[in-house]
Amino acid sequence: MSAASTAMRASNRRLLPEGRLEGPLPWLIAIMMFLMVLAAALGLGLGRAAASLADALAGRVTVQIVEGDPRAREAQARAAQSELGRIAGIRAVRRVDDAEMRALLEPWLGNIVNHGDDLPLPAMIDVDIAPGEQWRLAAIGRTLARIAPAARIDDHGRSLAPLAGLIASLTWLAIAIVLLMATATGFVVVLATRSALDTHHATIEVLHLLGATDSQIARLFQRRIALDALLGGAIGLACAAPVIFLLGLRLGALGSELAGTVALWPAAWLLLGALPLAGAGLATIATRRTVLGALRRTS
Amino acid sequence: MASIVQFENVGLRYGTGAEILSDLSFSLARGSFHFLTGPSGAGKTSLLRLLFLAQRPSRGLIRLFGEDIVTLPRDRMPLFRRRIGVVFQDFRLIPYLSAYDNVALPLRVAGVDEAEIATAVNEMLAWVGLGSRASARPATLSGGEQQRVAIARAVIARPELLVADEPTGNVDPDMAGRLLYLFEALNKLGTTVIVATHDVHLLERVPDARTIRLDRGRLDDPAGIVRTDIARPLPRRPLR
């Protein structure tokens, strides 16, 4: 950087009026940053939930043997458990025991599930397929058709695909909102810069006639608007952070495993904290381009 | 003596209007002192705007410091402008800056060290009688004081060419004499000075000055520059 640039930078502070939070720009940016941080938090949380869901469901299959005759059901379950374990690509086969079954059904059927063996419960077998071995589902179907005609296969991934799709859509929507807000912030900065150029037209002309370069003049505006953007961004973040934190607590209180994964982790908070800095960077670039473009058109 | 400014058939019009300046051809020698006179509306300020590179001509050739500035790329303009000091008729002080910072501005733009700036600016403010008003903002200064700040700003960087538009219009005769003395001192150091003025008495104070007279956008003496005879007042012409 030239000596001229450095000297101008050192004395810049007094060249344009710099009352903080006096104009609407910091407040506009604060509002937009508030919404942007919320959308980003939603996107990050949902992204993590989608990943957790995919991890949890990938390769998970439950085989139900729905057979009224307890002895036949038991025989088919044993055979299925044994045969499925032999298929290549299957990582684990686990029979869901009766106590676990009853515990699962109790919220739906009440205490009746714990009295006697009259309630015909299906035999359930959890099957874990190794990653990349999803095509083994067909082999599982063929095996079960042979040894346990009463078996039904519940592919978790397929049954929860609509939910995973919804989460993915919401994640993309959140990303789109963040990008739209960033674009809108850029346009707001452009408008504010144009307005500032009009306001300080006389000063700019004098600076030009004294030999200031376009870059020197652009830096005056960059510095001022970047500070406004940083300040507005910090306010927006400060308002959004408690909202995100409280929403996280509410989600945690739901007791749902899936809802729990939406909560933000430390790295995500750091990412959100970087948004005002990114906003200030965006404002700086938008200001510089606007000022240089406008100055080039003047003479 | 080499010319610092050279005009050849220069014309200027704003937009599609009539020409404000027409067929101006003259040259100014380096280190010379000139007055620019003429009735109101003659085009003095427009001519000065061409000289301090606020405007490019509509036609013709202008050479400044030996370079054609009509086709000079925009990004080279600042270096040329730093070699020119300008006293604007309406002062054009920056309202947010103190008198000190206004005067320091050309030096800061040029990247001069702050310690050097402090010495030069304080000395200059003392010279123009504003040593005690260094921290005052333009709005709190009188018209005369603002004019002196504007002059101090124009000469602080010891420009090669000093262009002044009615620089003594708002000051008393004593101060006018003092400011003119400052211009002469700069001129003796090698600065080419051109002062637009209506003040006939001002012309008489600078024995070596030449006069350029403009009338309706044209040189009154198309052949070039009329020598000022200090023994006689300039010929009075009726205002048109």
Automatic annotation (TrEMBL), chain A:
<feature type="transmembrane region" description="Helical">
    <location>
        <begin position="21"/>
        <end position="44"/>
    </location>
</feature>
<keyword id="KW-0812">Transmembrane</keyword>
<keyword id="KW-0472">Membrane</keyword>
<dbReference type="InterPro" id="IPR004513">
    <property type="entry name" value="FtsX"/>
</dbReference>
<feature type="transmembrane region" description="Helical">
    <location>
        <begin position="166"/>
        <end position="192"/>
    </location>
</feature>
<protein>
    <submittedName>
        <fullName>Cell division protein</fullName>
    </submittedName>
</protein>
<keyword id="KW-0131">Cell cycle</keyword>
<dbReference type="GO" id="GO:0005886">
    <property type="term" value="C:plasma membrane"/>
</dbReference>
<dbReference type="InterPro" id="IPR003838">
    <property type="entry name" value="ABC3_permease_C"/>
</dbReference>
<dbReference type="GO" id="GO:0051301">
    <property type="term" value="P:cell division"/>
</dbReference>
<feature type="domain" description="ABC3 transporter permease C-terminal">
    <location>
        <begin position="176"/>
        <end position="289"/>
    </location>
</feature>
<keyword id="KW-0132">Cell division</keyword>
<keyword id="KW-1003">Cell membrane</keyword>
<dbReference type="GO" id="GO:0032153">
    <property type="term" value="C:cell division site"/>
</dbReference>
<feature type="transmembrane region" description="Helical">
    <location>
        <begin position="267"/>
        <end position="287"/>
    </location>
</feature>
<feature type="transmembrane region" description="Helical">
    <location>
        <begin position="225"/>
        <end position="247"/>
    </location>
</feature>
<keyword id="KW-1133">Transmembrane helix</keyword>
<dbReference type="Pfam" id="PF02687">
    <property type="entry name" value="FtsX"/>
</dbReference>
UniProtKB/TrEMBL annotation, chain B:
<dbReference type="InterPro" id="IPR005286">
    <property type="entry name" value="Cell_div_FtsE"/>
</dbReference>
<comment type="function">
    <text>Part of the ABC transporter FtsEX involved in cellular division. Important for assembly or stability of the septal ring.</text>
</comment>
<dbReference type="GO" id="GO:0005886">
    <property type="term" value="C:plasma membrane"/>
</dbReference>
<keyword id="KW-0472">Membrane</keyword>
<dbReference type="InterPro" id="IPR015854">
    <property type="entry name" value="ABC_transpr_LolD-like"/>
</dbReference>
<keyword id="KW-0131">Cell cycle</keyword>
<comment type="similarity">
    <text>Belongs to the ABC transporter superfamily.</text>
</comment>
<keyword id="KW-0067">ATP-binding</keyword>
<dbReference type="InterPro" id="IPR017911">
    <property type="entry name" value="MacB-like_ATP-bd"/>
</dbReference>
<protein>
    <recommendedName>
        <fullName>Cell division ATP-binding protein FtsE</fullName>
    </recommendedName>
</protein>
<dbReference type="GO" id="GO:0022857">
    <property type="term" value="F:transmembrane transporter activity"/>
</dbReference>
<keyword id="KW-0813">Transport</keyword>
<dbReference type="InterPro" id="IPR017871">
    <property type="entry name" value="ABC_transporter-like_CS"/>
</dbReference>
<dbReference type="InterPro" id="IPR027417">
    <property type="entry name" value="P-loop_NTPase"/>
</dbReference>
<dbReference type="GO" id="GO:0016887">
    <property type="term" value="F:ATP hydrolysis activity"/>
</dbReference>
<dbReference type="GO" id="GO:0051301">
    <property type="term" value="P:cell division"/>
</dbReference>
<dbReference type="InterPro" id="IPR003439">
    <property type="entry name" value="ABC_transporter-like_ATP-bd"/>
</dbReference>
<dbReference type="GO" id="GO:0005524">
    <property type="term" value="F:ATP binding"/>
</dbReference>
<feature type="domain" description="ABC transporter">
    <location>
        <begin position="5"/>
        <end position="239"/>
    </location>
</feature>
<keyword id="KW-0132">Cell division</keyword>
<keyword id="KW-1003">Cell membrane</keyword>
<dbReference type="InterPro" id="IPR003593">
    <property type="entry name" value="AAA+_ATPase"/>
</dbReference>
